[in-house]
Design goal:
It is a single chain. It is globular and about 50 Å long. The chain starts with 5 loop residues before the first helix and ends with a strand. By secondary structure, the chain is mainly beta. It has a single domain, classed as Pnp Oxidase, Chain A (Roll). The protein has 4 helices and 12 strands. The strands form 3 sheets. The chain has a 7-stranded antiparallel β-sheet. Strands 1-11-12 form a 3-stranded antiparallel β-sheet, with no helix packed on it. A two-stranded antiparallel sheet has the order 7-8. It binds flavin mononucleotide. The site of flavin mononucleotide has 22 residues, from strand 3, strand 5 and helix 2.
Length: 167
């Protein structure tokens, strides 16, 4: 082992799975952003957590509504990840600008994303401020998978996205 800087050592985490986090304002207008920092945090009940920067519009919306949809993006969504990660829902309606197709959720207001590998409707049950981000832990109240897309996208570093095809 050789000691190095945090920023050098943490590069070894790649490939990193990418998720999309869909949230809504109080009027039901949706926003979406990619996130690399997500995890499963409980089996019973099923829970998923995402770490969201305090300055993100998504942060404000999840704080306000206590709901989000976590999405595993499929092959072909590389451009969508780059677009939704490079602008803010504060300034632009990402869904209409990019033509993102949605499906209605059952128990939460943020919509599902059509043609994703999987979607999870989540209700926030806990949160933890960690430095400049907040970890929102959501109970999964509904889960979906695509009949068509199976392999999710990973970030291989420097926003190079590819799938790791299954068997
Ligand atoms: C591949 C990728 C992963 C990202 N991961 C995170 C993350 O885990 N947490 C976070 O707060 N921002 C993350 N970002 C940055 C946000 O997606 C970005 O700031 C976005 O524009 C915020 O949109 P919003 O203001 O509409 O919420 C990531 C961006 C990219 C491209």
């Amino acid at each position: 082992m050789i000691e190095t800087t945090w920023s050098e050592a943490i590069k070894r985490k790649y490939p990193e799975p990418v998720v999309l986090v869909v949230s809504c304002d109080r009027e039901g207008r949706p926003d979406v952003m990619p996130a690399g920092w997500s995890m499963v945090t409980s089996g019973i009940p099923p829970m998923l957590a995402v770490s969201i920067g305090h300055r993100r519009y998504t942060h404000k919306l999840i704080e306000e509504t206590g709901e989000f949809v976590l999405v595993f993006p499929s092959k072909g969504m590389e451009g969508l990840i780059n677009y939704t990660g490079s602008c803010s829902g504060r300034d632009v309606d990402k869904f209409s600008e990019y033509g993102i197709e949605t499906l209605k959720s059952k128990y939460v207001r943020p919509p599902l994303i059509k043609d994703a590998v999987a979607c999870f409707e989540c209700k926030v049950r806990g949160k933890l401020v960690t430095g400049d981000h907040t970890v929102f832990a959501g109970e999964v109240v509904a889960s979906y998978v695509s009949e068509k897309y199976r392999d999710r996208l990973y970030n291989f570093g420097n926003n190079r996205f590819r799938t790791i095809p299954g068997e």
